[in-house]
Amino acid sequence: MNYLLDLQSFLPGIIVAVAGLAAIMLEAFKKSANTSFSVTIGGIAVALLFAIQSLYGEAGTAFSGMIVYGGVGAFGSVVVLLGALFCVTISREYLRDLDLHNGEVYGMILFSTTGMLGLAVSNDLITLFISLETMSICLYVLAGLMKNEKIGAESALKYFLLGAFSTGFLLYGIALIYGATAATNLTEIAAAAQPTFLFLCGTGLLFVGLFFKVAAVPFHMWTPDVYQGTPTTITAFMATAAKSATFVAFVLVLTRMLPSSEIGDWQSVLQVVAILTMIVGNLIALAQDNVKRMLAYSSIAHAGYLMVGLAAGNEAGYAGVLYYLFAYTIMNAGAFGVIAYYERNHGLDFTEIDSYAGLGFKVPVMGVMLSVFLFSLAGIPPMVGFIGKYYVFAAAVQAGLIPLAIIGVLASAASVYYYLRVMVYLYFKEAHKEYSLKTPGFLFKWTLILLAVLTVYYGVEPVLPTSSLMELISSYYTV
Amino acid sequence: MIEIDWYLALSAVLFTIGLVGVLIRRNAIVIFMCVELMLNAVNLTLISFSSYHGDVTGQILVFFSLAVAAAEAVIGLAIILAIFRNNLSVDITKVNLLRW
Amino acid sequence: MDTFIFIFLAVLTIGSGLGMVLNRNTVNSALFLVLNMVSIAGIYLLLQAQFLALIQILVYAGAIMVLFLFVIMLLNLDDERSLFSKVRAKYISAFFLGVVTLSLILYSLEGVADLLPEISPEMETAGTVEALGDVLYTDYLFAFEMTAILLTAAVVGALMIAQYKKSNNGASE
Amino acid sequence: MESPTALVSLIIGLPLLGFLINGILGLSSTAYRSKKTLIGILANLAVFIPFLCALTLFLNFDSESAAAFAHLFTWMETGSFSVDIAYQVDQLSLIMTLVVTGVGSLIHLYSIGYMAHDEGFWKFFAYLNLFIFAMLNLVLADNLLLLFLGWEGVGLCSYLLIGFWYTDMSKSDAAKKAFLYNRVGDFAFLIAIFMIFETIGSLNFEVILTSLEAFSGNDIFWIGLLILIGATGKSAQIPLFVWLPDAMAGPTPVSALIHAATMVTSGIYLITRMSPMFVMSPEVMMIVAVIGALTAIVAATIAITQYDIKGVLAYSTVSQLGFMFLALGSGAFTAAIFHVVTHAFFKACLFLGSGSVIHTMEHVEHKLHDKGKDVHFDPQDIRNMGGLRKYMPSTYKTFLIATIAIAGIPPLAGFFSKDEIVMHAFNMGFGEYAGAMYFILWGVATITAFLTAFYMFRLTFTTFHGSFKLPKLINGTEGSEEYLHESPATMTTALWSLAGLSIVGGFIGLPNFVSKTFGGDGHINWLHEWLHTIAADIPLTLSGTAEWALMTFAIIVAAVSVYIAYKMYGNDQQEESDAWIASKFGPFYRVWKDKYSLDELYEGAIVHPTVNFSDKVLAVFDMKIVDGFVNAIAGTVRISGSLLRYIQTGVASNYALFLILGVILVLTILLF
């Protein structure tokens, strides 16, 4: 066994973990949050480079089949690292204003990212479980960053209690699958799988654990509360990187552990949950007056669209999910970023939609960018969000799930209402009182501009056409 | 000789007791203890399968699950401390500022 | 003989579990949970998982539950009379949901005994520290390393959350 | 010819880049907005460099070259349907690109001076660049879908630019009107696109035009008709032309660029592109010709009665577009494109000249205000002008050149193109299908040509000859002629360039018969040679003598018309002469002056009855049933949203309850 080779296959994760340790050490001994910040950015950026490099390498398994490298896992790692990178770059100013800027926060973000990277490459239920827990434990802490505020502690408590509760189901699912197949490795399970009730029940409970993490209805209830009570840039991190990692793990489970649809009717489960998620997420989002909470429900709705791609169960669907994750990471990080900016100026209450009246003209570039991100989230061409939706819905149609696609399109049409509502407030309502906004800092502003440019650019030229994503998926068939 | 059914059923019953406990209790610490009970129940299932399969993987998984439980306990109790400081209570029905 | 021990332990486990859920005193609940964990450790012995039985007592009953008790004492939460849910519908629905979930799980266990009739003879050696350590540091190295990160993160995270009114400007403490 | 991808990317990309740079920087930085020189130069380069690129492509191309394609990327792809961002470089698209970027560059140059004092300077140039980008997409697209995107894009830009001074209510109304009338046409065009896709399964021009036999005669008729309706919307033909005169509310360079030289000719471009299909249906051809001739004469008669300098030019544009449609309908696609080119030159020149005049008249008004005189007058009303040639010689000379060109006096540009059109219409009179009709159309065209020369010289004489009338008409404006001045160099440069083009522009389409008469080989019509692979022209069958006779006749008509106009308006007799015409033509004149009451007709015949009907009948139906239904759905959605949110009680154990419900749901689906 060549450990060096194994280590190399998880190089991005190792780099991020080491950076995390460094960030905490720097905080402890040098008391320098800025150095930690630089280490964090540097670590994630280097990890990102290695992840991109492995995207072009060949696929295989490492650590005695515990993880996969290359292929879908590499793509997932890239998306996770992108999400982490963007969220960290927009975090500094925001956290400073909240008086939360210190190295431990970055350490937590990095450890959490390590967990996500493990999740995105897991080829074994044990890896999946441990990585998921590493990610979650750090997220519980991050959710409670504003521990001296009532809502901060509350969001951490809810996230933690329900997260631990769902972990119970996840672990039970793994136990039953193990009982039915005597294996935890995904491919070994696929080889040993029989359509026994034990196995089906196990996969069902495993799904529950994953559904919880991606905030699918009816496992979504924690999402709005936690998103609202978490510092906004950290919310962006949860909504993009964490969700992407879990969805990639989901894709790995479906393609590697459950390739045969004859054993169980997983597609129906995914379909029902997708429909529930799209409908409930969008309906409640319609009734929200808090922009941050609205975005939380919208992220639930987006989990529904992603689930449509999973329910399609074909390569096009999985490829669509991967593309959508990329798109979603870009546009959602951007949207949360702009909201964080507005919030930074006027405190935490400044997420009520009423306070957005007339904001669009204050710092025009921010207003325009928020509009771009919201257009993209609403799936209006030529934004990247449209392309993502198009791919997953087209895959559903290809798989013959036409009703599902129709519900998806209707739901996303309804979603236009609440996204545009924010824009109506931004541009067509009179501001209640005169005030000025802080000028956004250099890094913050240009990160958002980059995100906005990417949102439009990938909407106009989707350089990651589904066919090459499909190759990523099929590259795993032999390993 | 005890058949595996009995172990599994015992485990399922314990799991359900924990589950119902989570639903009916209002004390955050007790709810958390119920979750620990659920995890224990799952560990029992894993060890039973491990023994009857004669495969060590299940025990390894229990080992990791113990580590996770320990980590969760540390974090969870810290969060409960924070809640207590803010609310002077650990009653979760009173922790409902975030809703709707 | 095994059977009697099992029945005894099973009754003890279920009883202590119910005791934990139903007792109004938080300290008592915690003590019931300790009892529950010890008896589960006994069942592990029946299943020939000696090492894990030991850890169960050391880690769970010994470390984790002491932590629980410590926090309960710290917060002075011994009595919870007022904290019991008064809504009867909630009990009924919780009980109902519990029964449905339990029956679904039990339903899925059908036929397992035919597949796995008896404890594998390999367990004589498989439950020992050597056997576990052997695979833990080779086959499951990745998970082991990830656990290391997990525990580090948990310790740091707990500090972050539990620190009281830390002034955060530039980490002056 | 090697692959044109790089050059095409530049041609398409630079205007977009210009739009993005000026748009984003202008939006984000107020400091940038005041750097007008920089903004102007960037915007100009963003059009001028593409012009040079197009010129390079053009010089490497000859009339026999096969079309070259630049496939930039595939936007989306599923199954047989793909959206390709791909461009087609051939003789036709090159001509159009040269016109769009060439005239576009000059107008951009002119705008630097014209808009110099406007607050929205950066926005104006950003929009203009965006327009050029959309227009280039339209003319270079290799498939109907991309063309349609460009088609919608130019519509959007036109809407934005007409309403550029959106604070003025009437201007934003004009923008809305343009938008609405265009939507009607676009809708028809879209249906045509669907029909084509359904039959052929592709929207690529090459594929469509090589598989025309797949269409039944009926299909061709309906598709042709729908495309025609689309074209009448964008190119302001009967019945959808009423938006164009109102569209002159926008800044004058916009009128010159969009509503005279480029966007409004996109309908003609589209039909020429699809010409092999149109010639298959003589019925549609005749409808096209009739619409064109009718529009030409209707607009010309209205133009006679107008006092607004831009109004006259607007109706003149509609009328000239009518000529182009007549050409299309007569199978003279080359002549139509020829007229597009020459018209772009002289009409842009006229509009810019009028802009120069308006600019100076506004200057007079401002100066008077500065002097504390509270006078108001319409700076666009020609009755206030007169004698301007003394004060703005360059504007006068260029305006006069362009007027001669549009009037059809040889050897200026307008003469050749218009003559070719009229001749083709006459030629079609001998055709198999509806010959007599084409003779009538020829007559209509000749009368229109007469009217064109007349109203254009009326405009020129009234504006520039005689004496400055403002001081005589309005108290407090005495001595205001001292404020009249020539426009800045950026504006006159553009004017002179366009005037020069109006003089020589006609030589790209010299009539072939002239050469034959003098023993040549009959191939001096360069444009005809250039486009012969694309435009499915119906050849002329007239004898040389007949052609000479027709041409001479046309020259005489134009000359007589100019002479009459000179006699009537050459020396300050505008008021008496208009009155004389009014008395002579009595009821007709009133109809012309009321613009055939078309706006009122649409209002009365369509809008009012619809409103009445809907008030009386539909309203009840609407309120009780439709509204009820819609409200019920919307209400249900909103209420269920509002109710559902209360599931979220904020108590964690309730959340756990739903989680368990989910568990039961999942397990039930899987196990049973």
From TrEMBL, chain A:
Catalytic activities: a quinone + NADH + 5 H(+)(in) = a quinol + NAD(+) + 4 H(+)(out)
Localization of this protein: Cell membrane; Endomembrane system; Membrane
Keyword RNA-binding: no
Membrane disposition: Multi-pass membrane protein
HAMAP family linked: NDH1_NuoN_1
The protein's role, per its UniProt record: NDH-1 shuttles electrons from NADH, via FMN and iron-sulfur (Fe-S) centers, to quinones in the respiratory chain. The immediate electron acceptor for the enzyme in this species is believed to be ubiquinone. Couples the redox reaction to proton translocation (for every two electrons transferred, four hydrogen ions are translocated across the cytoplasmic membrane), and thus conserves the redox energy in a proton gradient.
Matches recorded under PANTHER family: NADH DEHYDROGENASE
Protein name per its UniProtKB record: NADH-quinone oxidoreductase subunit N
UniProt source species: Rhodohalobacter sulfatireducens
Source lineage: Bacteria, Pseudomonadati, Balneolota, Balneolia, Balneolales
From TrEMBL, chain B:
Entry's EC annotation: 7.1.1.-
Keyword hit for NADP: no
Protein's membrane topology: Multi-pass membrane protein
Enzymatic reactions: a quinone + NADH + 5 H(+)(in) = a quinol + NAD(+) + 4 H(+)(out)
Entries under Pfam families matching the protein: Oxidored_q2
Its job: NDH-1 shuttles electrons from NADH, via FMN and iron-sulfur (Fe-S) centers, to quinones in the respiratory chain. The immediate electron acceptor for the enzyme in this species is believed to be ubiquinone. Couples the redox reaction to proton translocation (for every two electrons transferred, four hydrogen ions are translocated across the cytoplasmic membrane), and thus conserves the redox energy in a proton gradient.
Protein family (similarity comment): Belongs to the complex I subunit 4L family.
Protein's name in the database: NADH-quinone oxidoreductase subunit K
Classification of source organism: Bacteria, Pseudomonadati, Balneolota, Balneolia, Balneolales
Gene: nuoK
Automatic annotation (TrEMBL), chain C:
Protein name: NADH-quinone oxidoreductase subunit J
Sequence intervals crossing the membrane: 6-23, 30-47, 53-77, 89-109, 140-162
Pfam families tied to this protein: Oxidored_q3
Membrane topology according to the record: Multi-pass membrane protein
Membrane listed as a keyword: yes
Annotated compartments: Cell membrane
Record family assignment: Belongs to the complex I subunit 6 family.
InterPro entries from the UniProt entry: NADH_UbQ/plastoQ_OxRdtase_su6 (IPR001457), Nuo/plastoQ_OxRdtase_6_NuoJ (IPR042106)
EC number: 7.1.1.-
Enzymatic reactions: a quinone + NADH + 5 H(+)(in) = a quinol + NAD(+) + 4 H(+)(out)
Signal peptide location: none
Entry annotated with the keyword Transmembrane: yes
Cited function: NDH-1 shuttles electrons from NADH, via FMN and iron-sulfur (Fe-S) centers, to quinones in the respiratory chain. Couples the redox reaction to proton translocation (for every two electrons transferred, four hydrogen ions are translocated across the cytoplasmic membrane), and thus conserves the redox energy in a proton gradient.
Enzymatic class: translocase
Keywords on record: Cell membrane, Membrane, NAD, Quinone, Transmembrane, Transmembrane helix
UniProtKB/TrEMBL annotation, chain D:
InterPro entries on file: NADHpl_OxRdtase_5_subgr (IPR018393), ND/Mrp_TM (IPR001750), NU5C-like (IPR003945), Proton_antipo_N (IPR001516)
Keyword field contains Manganese: no
Superkingdom, taxonomy of origin: Bacteria
Subcellular location: Endomembrane system; Membrane
Span of domain NADH:quinone oxidoreductase/Mrp antiporter transmembrane: 141-429
Membrane topology label: Multi-pass membrane protein
NCBIfam families: NDH_I_L (TIGR01974), PRK06590.1 (NF005141)
Protein's recorded name: NADH-quinone oxidoreductase subunit L
